[in-house]
Amino acid sequence: MQFRYRARDKQGQLQTGAVEAGDERSAADTLMKRGLTPIAIDRSAPTSAALPGWDNIKAKVADALQPKVSLDELIIFCRQMYSLTQAGIPMLRAIEGLGDTTQNKSLRKALKDIHEQLERGRNLSAAMAKHKGIFPRLIIAIVHVGENTGQLEESFQQLAVYLENEQDTRKRIKAATRYPSFVLIALVVAMFVLNIFVIPTFASMFERFNVELPWATRALLGSSQFFVSYWPLLLALMVGAFFGLRYYKETPPGRLMWDTLKLKVPVIGSILRRAMLGRFARSFSVMLGAGVPLTQALSLVAEAVDNAWMENRVIEMRRGIERGENLSRVAKQSNLFTPLILQMISVGEETGRVDTLLLEVAEYYERETDYDLKTLTARIEPLMIAVVAVMVLILALGIFTPMWDMMSAYQGR
């Protein structure tokens, strides 16, 4: 954020201007490094608010068109920063070198801006905070703690390990859900093809024989006629529902409803919940190990879990801590953890090793998630086979039963 200041230089002359900083104290430190003695520091309005409406919209569109920074690129960035800082390379040279070598345009632009801010005397975490669309708050907070404790290289190492585990969990979940997703898509496509192209052919044949058709055949013919007559409307409704649901998911009520429903899906919901609890425990452990205060760590972890329902539970835990309750009690009140995990948190609180035991909790949940993901395909296959069998049964009853009746009638003549 930007601060307006009035200060005296070494000659006692009054100086005024603006400085970028994370808070007033950081702004004062920056001015003192420049040889200025601050008299007054006031927060100025954000520069984005000064933009006219159309310019603001154009700025948002331009940001949206910028290539996203993937989790893999953030991992590489943290690994490189750890290696460079550990080797003793000055921060300015490290950021400049990474900005010149990175392939992602958004990350390169952000690193060049960070380099310019560092040259003006701003610290790294405050410069990274200007690019929250690229660097999550969790990364910024741990970098800030690393700067204040003189352990910046260890902070980048912690972040790299955390992000690698997060990437591994995401890949395993995607790989496990790929098979059922393809099956469902294939079933939907097959339903459209059968109703629009296959069943109408049999319908014209049945009409010529003028026989009474069984209920399954009448149902198939009715659905086929509906698809043939209204397929443009159905297609438009599907596209509209897709984008409408996507827009609704971006709103706070829609995101809460969607994230709650995901956790209630049979088989998959329990896996997603364990994966989120593992993410919560690992990120919370990283934050506490880096020295982030407990309430601030809970606020940052609430965003890291990436689920509105669980985010609300974690925020309630933070409020309980602010009321003076201990961690084990608010964890029990949240109804998120099993008794075994609650006992581990309680022991960690008593021994002062909460971050270490939370890391063990994360590994416990990740092992459970890994086992569930390995057996997910075997658990979903019977359900998929049952759905396909029902479709085949309806098609067989609807198409082949009247054909057999007609053949029997023809042979009996």
Structure classification = mainly alpha
* Rg, Å, rounded: 30 Å
- Shape assignment: elongated
Written as H for each helix and E for each strand, in order along the chain, the element string is EEHEHHHHHHHHHHHHHHH
| Count of structural domains | 3
Strand order of the largest sheet: 2-1-3
Q: Any idea of the CATH class of the largest domain? A: Mainly Alpha
CATH architecture classification of the largest domain: Up-down Bundle
> Count of DSSP helices?
16
CATH superfamily of the largest domain: Type II secretion system (T2SS), domain F
- Strand tally, please? 3
Q: What fold name goes in the CATH topology slot of the largest domain? A: Receptor-associated Protein
* Uncertain ranges: 46-65
Name the helicity range. over 70%
Write a structural description.
This protein is mainly alpha-helical and 413 residues long. The chain has three domains: 2-50; 66-163, Receptor-associated Protein, CATH 1.20.81.30; 172-413, Type II secretion system (T2SS), domain F (Receptor-associated Protein). 77% of the residues lie in helices and 5% in strands. The protein contains 16 helices and three strands. It has helices at 24-33, 53-65, 71-86, 91-101, 105-119, 124-128, 137-149, 152-209, 215-250, 252-262, 268-290, 294-304, 308-322, 327-333, 339-351, 354-412, and strands at residues 2-8, 14-20, 37-43. The protein has a three-stranded antiparallel sheet, with helices on one face. Helix 7 packs parallel to helix 11 (268-290) and helix 8 (152-209) runs antiparallel to helix 11 (268-290). It starts with a strand and ends with a helix. Mean pLDDT is 79; it is low at 46-65. It is a multi-pass membrane protein. Belongs to the GSP F family.
